[in-house]
Amino acid sequence: MSVPSTHQWFKSSYSGGTGTECVECARTRGGALIRDSKNKSGSSLTVRRQAWRAFTTALQDGRMSQL
Fold first, then answer.
1. Which residues, 6+ apart, have CB-to-CB distance to 6 below 8 Å?
2. I want to staple 2 with a disulfide (CB 3.0 to 4.6 A). Which of 32, 41, 51, 54 is the partner?
3. How many CB atoms lie within 10 A of CB 44?
4. DSSP string covering 2-35
5. What is the pLDDT of residues 53-65, one digit of tens each?
6. Measured between alpha carbons, how far is residue 8 from residues 24, 61, 64 in Å?
7. What is the pTM of this model?
8. How far apart are CA 43 and CA 56, in angstroms?
9. What is the pLDDT of residues 20-47, one digit of tens each?
10. Domain residue spans of the chain
């Protein structure tokens, strides 16, 4: 049995429109967590604050659009 998460998860606005390519994120004191929205009880990726900030800034600046 999995333990319910105490984090407030939100769906990424950059996910695909078909519903098959969606990730969820949660902010933490030290950065952020990322998980597959279709597998909420699965593992999550922990990202440190500085890396999360650099990633989201690059998205906002359009530097990730080439990927």
1. none
2. 41
3. 19
4. PPPP-S-EEE-TTS-TTSSS-EEEEE-SSEEEEE
5. 998 899 888 887 7
6. 10, 26, 25
7. 0.70
8. 21
9. 668 889 999 999 999 988 888 889 999 9
10. 9-13+21-61
